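Margin note from the TA: students keep mixing up input and output lines. Inputs are the sequences; the output is the structure of the whole complex. Example:
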Amino acid sequence: MTTNRRDFLTAAVTAAGAALTPDLPHTHDHEHQAVPSDLALRVKALESLLVEKGLVDRAALDTLIDAYEHKIGPRNGARVVARAWADSAYKQRLLANADAAIAELGYGGMQGEHMVVVENTPQVHNMIVCTLCSCYPWPVLGLPPVWYKSAPYRSRSVIDPRGVLREFGLELPADVEVRVWDSTAELRYLVLPERPAGTAQLNEEHLAALVTRDSMVGVAKVAPPQAGVSA
Amino acid sequence: MNGVHDMGGMHGMGPVQEEKNEPVFHEPWEGRVFALRRAMGAWRKWNIDVTRHEVELVPPADYLSMSYYERQFAAFLVLLAKCGFITPKELDAGKPAPGTPVAVPALTVEKANLLIAKGAPTSRDVPAAPRFETGQRVRARNINPVGHTRLPRYARGKLGVIDRDHGVFVFPDTNAHYLGEKPQHVYSVRFAARELWGQQAAQQDSVYLDLWDDYLDPA
């Protein structure tokens, strides 16, 4: 497996070189020298090269990584969901114009420029996929998990959504309508999950704590608060 | 292109495997690849459709055996060379060719923060008459372009209903090949699961796809 990947990366660099300088001779040794043996080293080498050429500012790279590692993630989406549960007027705005309603809570931006929120009910279950690549609503959910980007999820969620949901431990009744949203354009989807029972007394902050990433992708429901935690 | 990336409806990929407490990046290099791609994107030598298509061009067996960030890195290297940012010699040596002028980075910290907060909208405020209206029956065109398209194979030739009009957006099939933005309406189109997959699907289930005017015919 690792060998295949390395071989491909070598080929990619070679192809890249060929595209640029078609007559550049590529000896066996040359090809292998073009790609260092370790992927981490290769990325590091590329970064150094781009920095040295003045094409990239390392501080800007750090800013991007820090934002998605520490600041932007499913807690954002959970706050949107909790607000919608707590405030029916907000929920109406969220379903009618998701961009504006999400911006009310200060969220928006890259890979969430055009948002749509779809509501789960006892009769309708929504789930989100991107079969062609891995489009995902970053401002509210952060970067996608590996399973969302994986071949099994991308291939099967449109043809066998109920089977996929079963693998996540969710068995839907036969009479529930399943709607799968394939993110083929630049619209990004967020599922508004059903508010669980036993949460009437909870404030927004406590409601948000119940909301999981998976429930906002539509591969899980939000579980009711556990005894003793809900106070 | 009818590539392996267009995997909706395929069998044999195995079960979905969820990782508990998954980190955002499994290795630091993944984060660097993620950030480097955005930082170099700021030079505007390519667009999002170009980058998607470059990943689709990863040979199918490699595409399936590589991780997401491995694919991204491989496609990124190709793009960097195609656009003249690096040469194989420089990659070999790990340093710029002698005499290369030093540029000023396109993406500063300030611009990175702006990119995160504002993104890069692909909607376009240009007059473009919609070809369809909500509730109208449509058939997805049976097209098989060798270039980039966002019309998956599983929907081609199938009957659907316009669920809503999202407005006017850049058209990926041309934009991915530097042939212009060709802005046009994008609609959410509802396809009955049985229209797509036959009787094995539940009668009431459906799949919604976001499709451009050029992907659709009236039905």
